[in-house]
Amino acid sequence: MSSRSPIVASQLVRHFGSSDNPVRAVDGVDLEVREGEIFGFLGPNGAGKSTTVRMLTTLLRPTSGTASVAGFDIVREADKVRRNIGVALQDAAIDPLMTGNELLELQAVLYGIAPSSVKPRAGELLERVGLTAAADRRVGTYSGGMRRRLDLALSLIHEPTVLFLDEPTTGLDPMSRVTLWEEVRRLNKEGTTVLLTTQYLEEADQLADRVAIIDGGKIVREGAPRDLKAQVGAPTLLITVDHGLEATASRVLAEFGDMRPTAEGTLGVGLAAGARAVTDVVRRLDEEGIVVHHLELNEPSLDDVFAEATGHRLEGEK
Amino acid sequence: MSTSHFSPTHLSAVRSSRALSARGMRNMRRLPSTFIPTLAMPIFQAIAFSGTFFAITKLPGFPTDRSINWYLPLAVIMGSAFAGVGLGFTTIRDIETGFFDRLRMSPTPRSALILGPLIMTWVRTVIVVTMVVIVGFGFGARLTGGVIGLLCLYVASIGLATVSAGWGLGIAYRFRDMRGAAIMQLTLFVVMFLSSAQTPLYVMTGWLHSVARVNPATNVLRLSRQGFLGEVTWNGVWGGLLALVGGSILTLTFAYRGLRGLERD
Amino acid sequence: MTAAAPAVALRQTAAMSKRSILALVRQPALVVPSIVFPLFFAALGTSSFGRATGLPGFPKVDSFLDFSLAGTIVQGVLFGSVQSGSALATDIENGFFYRLLASPTSRLGILVGRLMGAAAYGAAQTAFFTVLLIPFGLHVKGGVAGAVVMLVSGGLTAIAIAGFMAAMALRTGSSEAVQGIFPLVFIALFFSSAFFPRQTMSGAYRHIANANPISYLIEGLRDLCITGFTASACAKALLVPIGIMVISFSLALRSLAKRVAAQ
Which residue on chain B is closest to C190 by alpha carbon? Predict the structure, then answer.
């Protein structure tokens, strides 16, 4: 493991409850998040995501194992870790009696921002997350999306190099979710390494360069979403052709992989060589004089990956 | 790793404490329902006790002939004790909402997380003491020990608020829900009443006398009453000061260890 | 209401009473304070004010414990009745009350059952305090007859106070609002002869205690304990709570009718 990676965890374990019969919330997690990437931590409720994040963000000490964040040990150098990370928590833990501005200014003091920079920095961040107009309203009056955006602004007060987002969009409407994604991408482009936990497959798929799937306190898969899906199996190509040409088309398709069961009137093949075989398929069909009316390539989803790795499906279990 | 323009070079426990206590004061103004009972209760207690037990001063040897002079310091002291416990309440709420995690994740010195709210509690206590004393004077209380005597009352109040705040925080960090609130309230209530709260030691009989004699709360009450029962004497002061310093060290250590313990489970 | 036969109504009311008693028994956190606090103050008072019984204005008593029993009982019953009232508000908050309304249970039964539950608890508290304090030197001069009157008085007082709480619960539907009355109950108790005789008080405080019906209730109970079984003691111990009960019960009935009509 590279010691320069912003997040490195080795055999991280966390037990809760009595020592004779502990609940093993996190059960030996190895993790490496590389500089500049968005890393998705995917798993159902209670899988150990939040506990892992609470350890990496110094809120909780590991039962055993080690981890470093931003180059510092999370136990021995907890203070240095805290100086370098930004964290947006699952429930957007913000005091409803305070205004957005007051919260940012408090956060600035707690993070040791120079007194002369506090106000400009707060204003800049409010502007960035589009809350300037609501800056002097109590947070209790904010919508769910506004709270998350404020939470994000709070986590950025000290320009952290590593950002933890714990279920940043859980409970948000689709519009707010997309706005938040855009902001995360923008931050990442500016050089911030991001670790985000989520129980939404789409979120991991859309945002993350790499994902780790956690279940029962253990990481069961890790890699780029595309690679993980590729490991599950070949993508399925679906085509429809003129009536009467199905037999010829089937013969052509069979050259590229195993035929797959499909709905009436559609032909399907599992592309053994992956998505890049599509152009060859189309060229071969053209050579045979077959006109393709409809073409669709279905990648295995992360849910398929999850199901293959854990034996149960993530979506629909929330 | 890129260095930030906003590297934490201005981190200080004092600055963070000030910001946290300002937050507490502001929230108190914005949610007066958390503050008003802590003001109303001691005022009621001062009036109700001195009215109900009006005749107690007629006992031979009683140190004052005004029942309000005896019960006003008690009410002030009880109010201060509950101001400290009130900090325990708000901390439990911060833990339950997760706001406290935000504070813990910041690189600010841990001492600021205790000191900030504690300063707020002191300010709050001074406000309560002042208002209750003013009402008490309206109901006939008279200062016999001069400004020094009044100072004794303030010292006892702030000291006891510190002790009970440490106790409240320690319990809040350990229980983290409203069960903790019941425990901190009840224990304090019992300790405060098993003392010379209602009558002087010499009036008591039986078991209560034995308990109250060794209860440090009796010393604190003696200190608080210095200005209301004749002259201030060093004899009446030092025991209270000792109890408050010792108690504060104990409960604040209890709180600090509890805060550290949050990482452990 | 389908079944209006008195026997059915009675059975329903009994079932409601049983439910409200069980609710108290099963939630010791609700019950314990209304038992422990009065006893704590009784113990504290006996040791603190033991020597005060010789003060002018004090009735002739053997011990401060005998004197304080009445205050202990009323204090306990008052605290306990606040719980009964807020339990009704909780029923409204969580919708159970409306399920009862939708059932053929009589409307009156819902209210009376609650109050009967409170009465049973109040009487039980009275018995418990009396029996528990006997080994500590309590002596009830009124004898068994006096103790029985005290028991009945405890029950009636519970209905009287729980009636106010029920009225508040039915009016607001909020257990927080009902709990909010608690300080008022506390004030009413302190501005009476619960802890010290009225005769030792002075000025405005004494005037308030003189006007406070709770003073007379307590003095009735107290006379049963420290003087004996007398007609005036019985009258005070029984008529005062009955008087309060008439007022609070009619308030509760009005609030019940309003809530049912608003449904």
Answer: B48
In the numeric block, which tokens belong to residue A47? 């899988």
Q: Please, which residues 48-67 of chain A have a Cβ atom closer than 8 Å to chain B?
A: 57-61
Cβ atoms B153, B227 nearer than 8 A: yes
Q: What are the domain boundaries of chain C?
A: 18-261
- CA diameter of chain A: 78
Position C227: which residue type? T
SS3 A22: coil
Q: Are B135 and B43 in contact (CB under 8 A)?
A: yes
Q: Letter for the amino acid at B103?
A: L
The residues that bridge with A198 in the sheet, in sequence order, are A42
Q: Which three-class secondary structure state does DSSP give residue B177?
A: coil
Backbone angles phi, psi at A99, to 5 degrees: -90, 165
**Prediction pTM value:** 0.86
Q: What is the CA radius of gyration of chain A?
A: 24
H helix count then E strand count, chain A: 11, 14
Query: Rounded CA gap, C168 and C252, in Å?
Result: 8
**Which chain A residues have a beta carbon less than 8 Å from that of B104?**
58-59
- Which of B40, B54, B203 lies at the smallest CB-CB distance from C201? B54
Structure tokens at B75: 């009410």
Distance of CA A60 to the CA centre of its chain: 22
Q: Which of B203, B200, B196, B249 is nearest to B218 (CA)?
A: B196
Report the complex ipTM: 0.88
Which residues are bridge partners to B245 per DSSP? none
C-beta atoms surrounding C119 within 10 Å: 26
What whole-number distance in Å separates Cα of residue A115 and Cα of residue B173?
Answer: 31
Residue owning tokens 């004010």: C49
Phi, psi torsion values for B60, nearest 5 degrees: -55, 130
DSSP assigned state of A30: E
The predicted-structure confidence for A187-234, as pLDDT tens digits, reads as follows 999 999 999 998 888 888 889 999 999 998 999 999 998 888 878 777
